[in-house]
Specification:
Radius of gyration: 23 Å
Shape: elongated
Structural class: alpha+beta
Length: about 325
Amino acid sequence: MFFCEQQSPENDKGGTVPKFILSPEDAGLRLDKVLATHLPEFSRTRLQELIAQGNITVDGICLNDASCKAREGMEIRVTLPPLIDPTPQPRNIPLDIVYEDADLIVINKPPNMVTHPAPGHLDDTLVNALLYHCGTSLSGINGVRRPGIVHRLDKETSGLLVVAKNDHTHHHLSEQIASRAMKRVYHAVAWGMVPHKLDTIEGAIARDTRNRQKMTLHPEGRFARTHCKVLQYFGRLASVIECRLDTGRTHQIRVHLTSQDHPLIGDALYGKPPRAMPETLKAFLKDQWPAKRQALHAKELSFSHPTTGEQKVFSTDLPADIRMLIDVLHSLT
């Protein structure tokens, strides 16, 4: 591959990517596969969009078939259109920033913050806050100036998540999730005495056909695996559990633990509290449990930095509301 121009990233006015000449090793491969290999800063989806928009030329002719075969000596040129302003608007919402550089930002998300704009939450989400905080440091995800949400946390779940600022970072972090190279560790407080032998829960997860807000175990769902480790017991009343994800399905920890009759404390969607509950705990959950949410926190996050290759490891303390819950449980045992 031969570069003859200086590379310029996606920006407000668009630009070009260095043209290159295909080598003998590229011959016979699909052109979109060749492009993905030589332009790792772009996702396969983004490259397919650029092809569809007529922004990639082969020997001066617009590429209109991503599946056509590459030949040695072909000259590839990519022209980038101007970035599209995002529909969500920037909002000055405080963020608990754990780490930030030119490529990514790690946030300690509070409970009851929605990640993406949705009905009922159009301008008070994490995306709105990131658009305000990051501003022009966002160099575009698939041609749109927006933060690249690599993984999500439920509205009521607190803790760590990493957000990409550009296509290159988004692509590589997404690959780390797919290959399970990114490690995510959650701490949860569940009802009952979770047995130590319950070290791994497997079960395919799909949307509940009777309640579209819920997920459920279903043989035709997507495979999911959660590793569990009991950290603390409060008699037979409750357990603190460490959960490590092999997969990242919607509501995975909540569904898996509920399937074992150990729903998370505070999870009104999936679990009900036991009938026999100390009055002190009942009063706390009714009047003092400030978050009104499931007791689930994304405590640890680790991944390889897409640009430097450095292994990044982050950890955060349990938030105040879960610490209060644990104190109450401790006082009862």
